[in-house]
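Reading is simple: each integer encodes one residue's backbone shape. An example follows:

___
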Amino acid sequence: MEIIDLNRDGGIGANSFFLKIGGLSILLDCGLNPKKTGRTATPDWAPLRGQKLDLIIITHCHLDHIGSLPVAMRGFPGVPVLMTTSSSMLVGRMLHNSANVMLRQKEAENIPDYPLFTHEEIDQCVKRFVGLPFGTPRRFRAGKDEIAITFHYAGHVAGAAGVEIRHRDRAIFFTGDVMFDDQRTQPGAKFPSGKFDTLVMETTRGATERPAGKSRAAEMARLTDSINRTIQRGGSFLIPVFALGRMQEILTIIHDARRFRRIVDCPIFASGLGMDLVDYFDEISRKTKHIQFSRAIVKELKVRPLPRQLKPGEDPGQNALYVVSSGMLVERTPSYALASGLLGKERNGIGFVGYCDPDTPGGQLLAAKPGDMFEFTAAHVRTKVKAEVERFELSGHADREELAQFAVQTGARSIVLTHGDPPARAWFVQQLAARMPNSTVLDPIPLQLYEV
């Protein structure tokens, strides 16, 4: 197999691989880098120039995996796009939201490249999406060559899949983004236990050691305790979340806590894409049974929409719980505006429940110390860190030890690392070299061709 990482900056962002397996050429994922704008946010498509393409495969619907999909499809008209049935129910809505965001950014920041695609183009793309069930191989031919593709349940988020590709006597596995532990809204990954020749593996939490005794249940209890403390002292608690997956997971956790009287009664605010996706999650839950979620949760919690205009630097003073995106406090998002008003008051709390890139405002806030000055540059707000800022281990990504153990049991001759910052990848390079001395561990340089 030939493989090229098209994510021009490496790390986590515009995730995309170009693969040649036998006589077939495949594009796996077409992401967008959330820290960049314009064409520089997309993968680098240069290695695809002059190439034929037989298939595009999508592992799941987070924008760092699908955000440039219409751009890729434009360059290869007629090529089918494979994903799970659940992902096919989500992808159009995610892309339409992305188009709306780009239109707003074009106006606010004068970005000439935006939008990278239009709503009309998305509607045309949807016609080429092929939704496949988990666990059922589908064969594809190019000339006399044939491969079999099977999607395996990956946890992480609704529709997420690990991808198994078999070509002649070779077996290749892509983990995509994976979560082995059960979440409240869906069970953990169900990956095959057999051997693989090549493993391409995410490394998101490679630099994060899970402390002894820090179970998911304990972290949920710690979150509810922190919310209770904050509300009882008259403050507000902000949970920045990703719209797809984290919001529905956190609302379900809060609903459970409320049902068993483990969380104080207070107003709950949430809005935006995450609330739209509540209906999609409800439909996926009913039709596929792969997740457990009901839109009734929103009604029973009496979730209120956010005010249409949030004034940066101003504490709304609602003595409330806010569950809003973005999960990394990306600039010009509701969570960013709210954080700029809540951070400077001791009575408030901010709780992060997912991955935060160190270079984003969320990552920078987690690195700050109480009493430090913190600047919300885009909001023109500078304030002291007075609110209680905490991280809760409720990520949708697998623990590094779990991933390392999965890699070892595959017995793969070649392991390609992806979707991780340099320190995370470095941990896997060291650990897998020690545990799998007969395997080649590859941390690919972007845009360089490798044969594995």
Notes: The two ends are 5 Å apart (CA to CA). Residues 85-109 form the longest helix (25 residues). Residues 337 and 404 are 38 Å apart (CA to CA).
